[in-house]
Amino acid sequence: MAIRTVDLKPIFVNKAFADFFGYSVAKMFSLPQEKALPEETMALYATHIRPALHTGQSWEGEYFIRKKDNEVILVWGRFDPVLDASGNLANVISIMQDNLTCTKTAKALKVSEDKFRLLAENITDVIWTMDDAYNFTYATPSVEDVWGYALEKLKELSLLKITLPESHKILKKAEKARSRAEAQGDFDHINRLEMEHYHGKGGTIWVETAVRRLFTEDGKPGGYQGVSRDITLRKQTEAALFERESRYRTLFEDSPISLWEEDLSRLKIYFDALKENGVTDFRQYFYDNPDALAKCATLVTVVDVNKATLDLLSAKSKEDLFGNLEKVLTESSMAAFTEEMILLASGGCEYCGEITNRTLEGETIWVVVHFFVPPEYKDSLARVIVSLLDVTPRKRAEQALMDSEERYRVLAENSQEGVIVIQDREIKYINESMTEIFGLSTEELEQVHPLEMVHPEDKPFIHEQFKKMYEGKEKEGFATFRVITTHDEIKWLTISVKPIMWEGQEAQLEIFTDITHHKTLERELLSTHAQMEDRISKRTAELSEANVQLKALAEERGKAQQRILALTQELIRIQEDERQRIARDLHDNVAQNISSIMLKMETLFDDHSCVDERLRKRSESVTDILKEVVASVRDIAYGLRPPALDQLGLVKSLQHLCLEAGNKHGFAVDFVATGVEDISLDFDSEINIYRMIQEAVRNIVRHAHANKATIRLVKSHPDIFIRIEDNGQGFNVLERQAKTLTEKRMGLRSMEERARLVGGSMEIQSLVGTGTRIIFRLPTHHSRRHTDYEYHDR
């Protein structure tokens, strides 16, 4: 295991990790990356592993490393991200097959703890006295080093004033404990407290204090005496140790390899007792006393296992596994257990072997077991680390390979192609088809190689084709040639030569195929081909002329489509301009005129005190109607040309559109825009985006029967993505598109056309009963934003 930076520079490397590369641990810190990792591995890290780590995901798989002797080997590894408080990638934990042993971790933690404990215990202590109200009456000069107060200043303060409120509870608890002790006659009771205090020079410190009661000469309580020491560093160390222990515990639990922590101290006592009784040959002893081996099994205590072990053995929990360990063992694993016991009893510390185990579901699996006693536990066997590596896929592959070899043997025996296996210039295998092709018996073919029967005209060619193979420069070859059989018959053959492994050694596989019939057909085809060539040349000339005409027609259609596109874009722009003009006239003229009439109606009877009540009510009714007309005119004007688009920008306008639609029609609209505020869109892009979303919202209101809609407007260079979703009734997309023209519903076509006019695309995803999703993908345009008109309510 190693802890690395994001650029794979080592921060921490254990010995097992360094052993993979063949270097010492110290050398790994100065080793250049190109010495340890081939280019393909660095490329794999850059393109796959590192991007996954940045998203907080782990990566595991195979990759290559370069050892000290420049040998490149394939290893299995796992990369885990270490994120900082902001969620950014800080470090990388790299694990290879052997993993980090928990024993080394525990030793490192113990050394670290001893070091910080020694540091804490050598800090100068403060001896002090207090009265019953916790006011200091005396303190040694070291008080200024611990609390940061001079003695005279400290006498003006009480212990409560320099203690954080959270620590007052600790003091209260100590008072109760002292009262109970004194009630039982224990007047020498000592309270040991750890409290957090304010430091005289700023900040806080943790102080460990031992307190005892002082008594006057007449036996009455007379204050307190205590010894205090600064344990701030120890507290910080304990927190760091806890964090480090948690990290290593996580490595143990989350390791992809099955890890077991076992306590064999009782087994060590048993072995020592046998040695004292004169047992020296434990192999013979266990063979003669099988009950002793069974007793050894009962003396093994499994302390802990990790998650990978539970997965490997199909256990629901650790308790489930510990209660059914006898189900895991097979005859193979019992044989390995015997070897382990013999090794341990003889003073050995490490064992590795391949065995079978059985899962709790009854499935047999193959594992490589690695048994290791850390040096510090060699004398007691109190901690032993066992790892199990699942090799079941490999074993099954080996069995499949054996089955495959049998199938290929049957194929070779029944193949119509001739097959010969040659090893060290000696024929090792000949199938029956060879005798049929060459007209020779198997014994004759063993004496005469088929290449010796090559037609004289083809011999120079064959010699040239296989020259490099004869010289050992190449191992594969292929050629087509003629042979003369013993019956003076000329046959056309192909030969394919490939290297194979035969009975564990290199050999050559030669496959001969009789293609005489194909050569006869080839001659006939060549004659037919010559005739066809003449016809094809004439037809090609005719097609070339037709192709020129088609190209001209295609160019004309392309120009027409461009003209249609430009015309459509101009029509939409004219439509928007006309909407803008109408909206301005409605807002500035019609709405204002009606507003004037409304004001006059409201003040119509201001100078007349005696007006018929029916006439006054009729006037108020007309005024209310005029108010509704003004509101309707402004709604129409805003719908034709939303003023917020010019005044507030695209995002604010869409937020207003979604909020207004949701409130008006009673469904929730979740609108979020990301990154769009940072780009400047031209007017055509803004109005088209607004109209597309506006039309989509209208469709949700009119047809979807939804109670929730989600709209996302996201910039992802170089495009803008718009995703509109609802949880409504949905529809069949193909049927709806087919009915669009006949029913004269242009909503979907309008959105698609607007997307196409700004260089984008629209995709509709919907099924009946599953809601609808519309996705727009639009290119960004960095053009100057402009506004033509602004509306101001009067």
User: If you compute it from the alpha carbons, what radius of gyration comes out, rounded to the nearest whole angstrom?
Assistant: 45 Å
Helix content: 40-55%
Q: What fraction strand?
A: 15-25%
Q: Within the CATH hierarchy, at the fold level, what is the topology of the largest domain? A: Beta-Lactamase
Describe the strand arrangement of the main beta sheet, using strand numbers. Answer: 2-1-5-4-3
Major sheet attributes: 5 strands, antiparallel
CATH-derived architecture of the largest domain = 2-Layer Sandwich
Overall pLDDT: 81
Number of separate helices: 28
**Poorly predicted sequence stretches spanning 5 or more consecutive residues:** 98-106, 782-794
Total separate domains: 7
- Note the quaternary state here: single chain
User: Terminal Cα separation, in Å?
Assistant: 74 Å
**CATH homologous superfamily classification of the largest domain:** PAS domain
Number of strands: 25
Shape category: flat
What is the class of the largest domain in the CATH system? Alpha Beta
Structural classification: alpha+beta
